Amino acid sequence: MNRHLVLKTLAIGLLVLLLLVPLALIEGTIGERASYRMQVQEEVAATHAGAQVVAGPVLVLPYVETTTTVAQARRDGEPAVSTRSENRTMLVFPSELVVDGEVQVELRRRGIHQAPVWRAKALEFTGRFEPVALPRPVSSAPGTTVTVVAGEPYVAFSISDLRGFVATPSIELGGERVLFEPRAAPPFDGPAVRARVDPELLAAGGSIAFSLRADLAGTRELSFVPIGDETRVSLRSNWPHPSFGGRFLPLEREVGDAGFSARWSVPAIATQARSALAGGREAQGERARATAPVDGFGVRLIDPVDIYAQAMRATKYGVLFVVLTFGAFWLFEVLRRVSIHPVQYGFVGAALAIFFLLLLALSEHLPFGLAYGLAAAACIALIGAYLAAVLGGMRTAAGFCAGLSALHAALYSVIRLEDTALLVGTLLMFSALACAMLASRRIDWTRFGLPSTPAGARPE
């Protein structure tokens, strides 16, 4: 085989390896830009309000349990009396909890980046608490007396970030509307508020209906903890790209260009939220702090066109771009018996690499599809003009440009797909290999580069 061809092939392979360096640098740049966008979103959340997890309302009945023990009489004739008091709470969860609200989403911009923030102006919680009596005092030993004294009952309500309260929330109990106060509200160990409850409502012994209204704000996500015997949540929003997550998916949902609507229904038997919230409080008293319930559900506001993820996916195929293009050049040299210098290979490879950086820069200011088309058109036009001079004709250069256009179109379809991206990418590579094999099938590689055999020396 021709030594020159072998050296040429090795030089092309070295160029492919060298082009991995700028492609890796471009991937690093994409990661840095994506990190900066995430930082902007965190800054917006820090100045607005973060993702919200809503739990409550819960009726809390504090009481003091006092145990008095009378021992045998002392030497002076007076009995020995010991007293021990312990603060306890009883939790009353809603027998029915219905949540209804509309979530309005808007975009807050910081430079070229934006972050979605939401506001639920009329989030309403309705339901009822069933009557419950405090535990009766029971003495387990002679000389021991147990007494129970009721404390001040209240309703506890919790959200992840108290800055999300746009206005002071209120709750209506028995026809009386009470504002919540920014006080510690066990059983919630984190941010929470409480509203006092008239003891006469409890003394009446009937079911207590409630209606809680809250004007909430947050970023990225809104979730709920199902603490009712039956928890039903209905949400509507103008955001057309929801991602429903948590431990429970909505029973019904509708997603369109104008927004989405969703409805959840979770029975208490299907969740451990109550037991996680109670945390053994009835047995251990107020000193026991409940852990955060893990069961929940809600909606996350996502950006379906993540330009950095798509740019990163495109760059992953950069090596394939270079290999296929250089392979086409090499086959062109072999079939047409022309010579293309390795430096010219390098210029074309640099133009292919700069495409991905140009795509990233344009997509930060333009829709991704338009940015991709402009970046591809600019690079293909540059390569076409260069090849017209190198190959000595517009027809050959136009053929290469047509091939590059098809390659860019195939890449765009791959990066826009999710479920079938591997299939399409594999078919692309298979098609390229098939074209190379069919184009070179008549070449006698064992005699390539050797002097031509005289006519008639070998039978046809």
Report on this structure.
With 460 residues, this protein is of the alpha+beta class. The protein is built from ten helices and 16 strands. The protein has helices at residues 3-47, 199-204, 273-278, 281-284, 307-316, 318-336, 342-363, 368-390, 394-416, 421-439, and strands at 52-73, 79-92, 96-110, 113-129, 144-150, 154-158, 170-173, 176-179, 192-196, 208-219, 221-224, 230-237, 242-246, 252-256, 259-267, 297-301. Strands 1, 2, 5, 6, 9, 11, 13 and 16 form an eight-stranded mixed β-sheet that branches. The protein has an eight-stranded mixed β-sheet with strand order 8-7-10-4-3-12-15-14. It is elongated and about 120 Å long. The two termini are 22 Å apart.
Q: Biggest sheet, open or closed, and with what strands and sense?
A: 8 strands, mixed
Gyration radius (Cα, Å) is 36 Å
Number of strands: 16
Strand content: 25-35%
Order of helices and strands: HEEEEEEEEEHEEEEEEHHEHHHHHH
Count of DSSP H/I helices: 10
Number of domains: 2
Question: Shape, please?
Answer: elongated
Mean pLDDT: 83
Helical proportion, percent range = 25-40%
The chain-level structural class is: alpha+beta
Report how far apart the termini are: 22 Å
Low-pLDDT stretches are 280-293, 452-460
